[in-house]
């Protein structure tokens, strides 16, 4: 952890930062918090019905651990210890609020204290039968559509991933105060909007689940192909998204799109070692050394895709994208890729979840299956879409198709345009290299 205190989302020092505590205990506390924070915050939120307050109480319990465990040692069940401390803090707070309310009522009505009902008591034993439901409620609350996408991502990584504001800021190349303010505003928005701590039902559940999956996949994608900075891949973000996806699959086993997202991330993550060259430069899919692909992750992805299909619902966007990833994984070499099948799957995806990004990816598949001229026609048909304005993949794809058609001057201009648009340094170098390679070509 950092050697000096960093602000958390409430503006207070991050309780895990600094302090010169024994490194072994400090590392144990950090590991426990990363594993248990979601369960603790979720359990406390069920008691106090306020996600922001629940996180504050959980942080209080973490501070208590930092104060006590270096001397007493890490307890046998550290998660239960933190939960118990958090619940006691919750009870103390509720009692204080009830005493204040009682005194105000007494002043107004002249009632005796003895006439007041005693504050409720909570069982401090671990509510294991509620924990999974509580975590699922926390997932749906942290990813509520009332929040901006950026706020949902910050809340998810903070409350479900146990990441500090420093870690979130570093992952998304922004400042700690910016992340902290996003989380503060998100808590305030949830409170002011009266968002209930619950798993929605019916159509609301489907709509909210889409928001949850979008946030998890956004986190994964930022790790898989970083939008900016000096690294093309950020493995830690991919791993965090995979962890969240696997938790969701456990909590919602009857949701095919959850399994579809897990399958998609598992298969894509299997390529991470092959996605960068010796200098950290991006390596395109067709040039990757497939011996470096992780066969265990591919197997897990296929298993998750099978679970999604066994549920029997019509395939949704993540199941279809997982099927596309599986088609790539089944090809022993780039030449063996069934591009016709992939183009067909993208066609189905465009019907289920139409977007210019899907159409751009379909153009790539069609360009491989039916030739670059066919792919270029699809790209040119969507080139004016507002959603693709400033999107570096658009000129990058167009440049590749033009190069295959022998239109080198146009291709070079497209690669240079893509290099101007990207904020990722390794990707920029590759694009400029492709442009330079075409210089002077006929």
UniProtKB/TrEMBL annotation:
Compositionally biased spans, kind Low complexity: 1-16
User: Could you tell me which residues belong to the region Disordered?
Assistant: 1-24
Molecular function as annotated in GO:
DNA binding; sigma factor activity
SUPFAM superfamilies named in the record = Sigma2 domain of RNA polymerase sigma factors (SSF88946), Sigma3 and sigma4 domains of RNA polymerase sigma factors (SSF88659)
* Database matches in InterPro entries: DUF6596 (IPR046531), RNA_pol_sigma-70_dom (IPR014284), RNA_pol_sigma70_ECF_CS (IPR000838), RNA_pol_sigma70_r2 (IPR007627), RNA_pol_sigma70_r4_t2 (IPR013249), RNA_pol_sigma_r2 (IPR013325), RNA_pol_sigma_r3/r4-like (IPR013324), WH-like_DNA-bd_sf (IPR036388)
- Please report the stretch or stretches of sequence annotated as the DUF6596 domain: 208-308
Q: Which PANTHER family match?
A: BLL0085 PROTEIN (PTHR47756:SF1), BLL6612 PROTEIN-RELATED (PTHR47756)
Gene Ontology BP, a term: response to stress
All copies of the RNA polymerase sigma factor 70 region 4 type domain together span 140-190
Keywords of the record: DNA-binding, Sigma factor, Transcription, Transcription regulation
In what residue span(s) does the RNA polymerase sigma-70 region domain sit? Answer: 41-99
Please give one Pfam family short name: Sigma70_r2
Name of the protein in question: RNA polymerase sigma factor
| Protein family | Belongs to the sigma-70 factor family. ECF subfamily.
């Amino acid at each position: 952890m950092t050697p000096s205190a960093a602000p958390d989302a409430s503006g207070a020092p991050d309780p895990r930062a600094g302090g010169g505590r024994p490194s072994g205990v400090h590392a144990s506390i950090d590991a426990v918090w990363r594993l248990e924070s979601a369960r603790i915050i979720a359990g406390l939120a069920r008691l106090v019905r306020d996600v922001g307050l629940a996180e504050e109480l959980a942080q209080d319990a973490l501070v208590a651990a930092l104060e006590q465990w270096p001397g007493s040692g890490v307890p046998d069940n550290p998660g239960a210890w933190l939960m118990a401390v958090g619940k006691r803090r919750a009870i103390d707070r509720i009692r204080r609020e009830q005493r204040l309310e009682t005194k105000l009522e007494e002043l107004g009505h002249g009632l005796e204290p003895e006439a007041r009902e005693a504050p409720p008591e909570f069982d401090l034993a671990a509510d294991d039968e509620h924990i999974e439901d509580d975590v699922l409620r926390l997932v749906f609350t942290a990813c509520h559509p009332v929040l901006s996408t950026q706020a949902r991502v910050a809340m998810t990584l903070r409350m479900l991933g146990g990441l500090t504001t420093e870690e979130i800021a570093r992952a998304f190349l922004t400042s700690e105060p910016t992340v902290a303010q996003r989380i503060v505003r998100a808590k305030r928005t949830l409170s002011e909007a009266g968002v209930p701590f619950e798993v929605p039902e019916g159509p609301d559940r489907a709509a909210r689940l889409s928001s949850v999956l979008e946030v998890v996949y956004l986190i994964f994608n930022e790790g898989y192909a970083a939008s900016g900075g000096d690294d093309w891949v950020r493995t830690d973000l991919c791993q965090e998204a995979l962890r969240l996806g696997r938790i969701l699959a456990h909590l919602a086993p009857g949701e095919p799109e959850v399994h579809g997202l897990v399958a998609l991330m598992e298969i894509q993550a299997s390529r991470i070692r092959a996605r960068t060259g010796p200098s950290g430069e991006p390596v395109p899919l067709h040039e990757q050394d497939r011996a470096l692909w992780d066969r265990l992750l591919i197997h897990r992805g296929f298993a998750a895709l099978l679970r999604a299909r066994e549920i029997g619902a019509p395939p949704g966007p993540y199941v279809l994208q997982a099927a596309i990833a599986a088609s790539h994984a089944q090809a022993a070499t780039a030449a063996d890729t069934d591009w016709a099948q992939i183009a067909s799957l993208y066609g189905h995806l465009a019907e289920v979840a139409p977007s210019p990004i899907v159409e751009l990816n379909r153009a790539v598949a069609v360009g491989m299956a039916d030739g670059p001229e066919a792919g270029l026609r699809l790209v040119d048909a969507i080139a004016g879409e507002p959603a693709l304005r400033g999107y570096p993949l658009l000129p990058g794809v167009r440049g590749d198709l033009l190069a295959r058609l022998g239109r080198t001057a146009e291709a070079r201009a497209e690669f240079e345009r893509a290099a101007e648009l990207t904020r990722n340094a390794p990707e920029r170098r590759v694009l400029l290299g492709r442009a330079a390679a075409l210089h002077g070509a006929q």
